[in-house]
Amino acid sequence: MSQPLSRRRMLKGLGAGIALPLLEGMLPLNALAASAKTPPLRMAFLFVPNGVSMEHWTPATEGAGFAVPDVLAPLSSLQGQFSILSGLTQQHAFANGDGPGDHARSAAAWLTGVQPKKTAGADIHNGTSADQIAARAVGSATRFASLELGCEGGREAGDCDSGYSCAYSSSISWHGETTPNAKETNPRLVFERLFGDGDAADRSLSWYRRNSLKQSILDFVLEDANVLSKQLGGKDRQKLEEYLSGVREIEQRLAKMESAAEALKTPGMKTPAGVPQDYAEHIRLMGYMMVLAFQNDLTRVSTFMFANEGSNRSYPMVGVPEGHHDVSHHGKDERKLEAKRLIDRFHVEQLGYILRKMASIKEGDGTLLDHTMLVYGGGISDGDRHNHDNLPILFAGKAGGAFRQGRHVVYKNGTPMTNLFLSMLDRMGAKVDHLGDSTGQLQGLF
Fold it and tell me: By the 8 A CB rule, do 85 and 407 touch?
């Protein structure tokens, strides 16, 4: 092609449109050469609530070659792709004179390292989160500066935890000190936002038209896709085909899920379209869309809350009919401890699905996972004690070749978790002197 394709190029047809991935044909020659050598770096933060069964999470030995603990067993085949970081702490999730409210504080402080103001009113106050600092540094290069996902809705008002606003328990991404980022929990709306064209009203009209005709968004843009494909080089054609296949798979899964939800709907009861009944499928759909957004450079920064902090969701799919928050307050009761282990392992199974998707995507001289920094964990260690030191933190991805995975790295207990974020931000090109309670970059990470 003599002229680079516009980065704003869309596939169009019959009132529908679909965003394109970043193609080599969109880059000038000098940028193309650099891109071929160094794919972009991505950053993701995946959050789980109510602590973790630490005795089933923490490897017994330090360094490489550790025996994978029970909760992490679903990741055994990926052992060379992740590490466990022990000893990291969020000091400002502790009460520090503010009394009860550990769940709300643990979510609010997780990516900020700041003590949130104790209020159930509109005068919330926290800090800017690590993901948003990264988004400001790299967001201009992508269609979306950042992507905020979740599986439980949130509120920005009301008392959700001992005098703390619901905004704290349901948000880990903070655009600024008083502005939590709303997360999207409906996979259909995420799909239309990521892959659709136009504003919300245009996307809604397009979806209504497609749904009434029982057609895929790809059916509407097929002619334009065929025209574009003939103009592309071999690598770009393959990338476009892989991208459209991924979009098709997600759309088919959404359609199947929505049909099942419609069949189960009680007459007169309003059910939100696009929200799966199957919790595992909900997590996997959201995670897969995050992966596709990374793969196609729609964004390079994402947060994903599997559930809000303090969530009391039940887990009948693994034999736990009780609420998660209830069993996390185990009081050393063996039955509750076993229920907590099963819940934690369920979450890790879904993480494994996301990591395997990333590891399966070839990119440059490695994979998408190799060019990602992904943090999985939470802001509480033992749910019964509500402690915020020695947090359960898993770090996946090789950060573009800078991180040697497959290790259990033990830091002195009390080491600020924000030191990890400083190191990640520096690697991302977002250099900041401090974040929350940070004391410097995490030594020996990269």
Answer: no
> Which residue is it, tokens 């590891």?
359
161 bridge partner residues: 164
Per-residue pLDDT at 78 exceeds 70: yes
* Residue 324, Cβ density class (10 Å: 0-12 exposed, 13-18 middle, ≥19 buried): buried
* Angle at which helices 234-264 and 217-231 cross, to 10°: 180
- Sign, Cα dihedral of 250, 251, 255, 261: positive
Band of residue 273 on the pLDDT scale cut at 50, 70, 90: low
- Residue appearing with tokens 């359960």: 392
Tell me the one-letter amino acid at 112.
T
Kindly list the structural domains of the chain, giving each domain's residue range(s) and its CATH number in brackets, ordered by start: 41-185+279-446 (3.40.720.10), 188-274 (no CATH)
Q: Does residue 32 surpass a pLDDT of 60?
A: no
**List of residues 6+ apart from 404 with CB closer than 8 A:** 398
Report the C-alpha gap between 187 and 94 in whole angstroms.
34
